């Protein structure tokens, strides 16, 4: 009988849902008046990270798999893949559009062509990553120790130039079960986002790199206050965190979801 059970073990394993240890976390965002404006459920397992937007009736999810994002739209059961291949295709399309634009400019009278080129010079430079300073490193100032709910934490003020944009309460990773695994996934995602941003043909305006910010403050942000022009605009709080077994299927698009090409008209 024992030998029969051992022989059946591989088949029983295949029939069981695959699940491995991981961590789930809920972050809640409120406005200056304390009204909930957003809620995101994070699920981390090793370097994989899933983010489900639970706020305001949203039906979207994003899955990070180390070298790509899956963006799920639960309303129409579809998804897109954001990876290096998509960026290369985007770059090629923009390059073709620029060549077409240059051909059209060549047909304009000299005075009109000079005026159009002057107007477009700055914009085209930004599109191709030219004439743009790299994002500044975040300036972080330690504010001492404090508490938020049951967490002891270190407080930091974050600045863009001279303007304070955030005050972050960061707890030690060892004080939050599962926080180290969640932070590992966050940091991997931050590195990949930085790589994607630097290679994009159309770059965003300079701003704080979240990966660099995480490295500077250390620990895990359990409470963040956002500021604009000296006024509080909102807060983000850690509501819950739990270590538990995670179904590996959560890190893939459902079988009945259709993959869409973001570079084509739907």
- Spatial separation of the terminal alpha carbons: 58 Å
What is the fold-level CATH name, i.e. the topology of the largest domain? outer membrane lipoprotein receptor (LolB), chain A
Proportion in β-strands: 35-45%
Number of domains: 2
CATH architecture of the largest domain: Clam
Number of strands: 12
- Taking Cα atoms only, what radius of gyration do you get, to the nearest Å? 23 Å
Largest sheet: 12 strands, mixed
Detail the poorly predicted runs: 1-17, 125-131
How would you spell out the order of helices and strands?
Answer: HEEEEEEHHEEEHHEEE
- What would the principal axes of the Cα set say about the shape? globular
What is the spatial order of strands in the main beta sheet? 7-8-9-10-11-1-2-3-4-5-6-12
Assembly type of the chains comes to single chain
Which terms summarize this structure?
266 residues; alpha+beta; outer membrane lipoprotein receptor (LolB), chain A; 5 helices; 32% helix; globular; disordered N terminus
């Amino acid at each position: 009988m024992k030998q029969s059970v051992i022989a059946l073990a591989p088949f029983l394993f295949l029939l069981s849902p695959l699940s491995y240890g991981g961590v789930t976390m809920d972050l809640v965002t409120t406005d200056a008046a304390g009204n909930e404006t957003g809620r995101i459920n994070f699920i981390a397992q090793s370097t994989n990270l899933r983010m489900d937007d639970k706020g305001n009736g949203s039906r979207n999810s994003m899955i990070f798999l180390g070298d790509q994002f899956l963006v799920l739209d639960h309303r129409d059961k579809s998804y897109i893949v954001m990876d290096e291949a998509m960026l290369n295709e985007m770059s090629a399309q923009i390059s073709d559009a620029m060549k077409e634009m240059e051909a059209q400019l060549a047909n304009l009278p000299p005075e009109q062509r000079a005026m159009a080129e002057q107007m477009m010079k700055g914009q085209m430079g930004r599109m191709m990553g030219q004439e743009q300073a790299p994002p500044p490193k975040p300036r972080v100032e330690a504010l001492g120790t404090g508490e938020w709910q049951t967490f002891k934490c270190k407080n930091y003020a974050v600045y863009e130039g001279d303007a304070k944009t955030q005050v972050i309460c960061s707890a030690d990773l060892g004080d939050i079960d599962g926080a180290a695994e969640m932070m590992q996934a966050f940091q991997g995602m931050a590195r990949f986002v930085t790589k994607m941003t630097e290679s994009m043909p159309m770059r965003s305006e300079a701003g704080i790199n979240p990966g660099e910010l995480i490295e500077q403050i250390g620990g895990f942000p359990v409470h963040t206050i956002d500021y604009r022009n000296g006024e509080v605009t909102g807060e983000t709080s850690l509501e819950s965190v739990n270590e538990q077994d995670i179904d590996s299927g959560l890190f893939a698009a459902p079988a009945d979801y259709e993959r869409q090409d973001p570079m084509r008209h739907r």
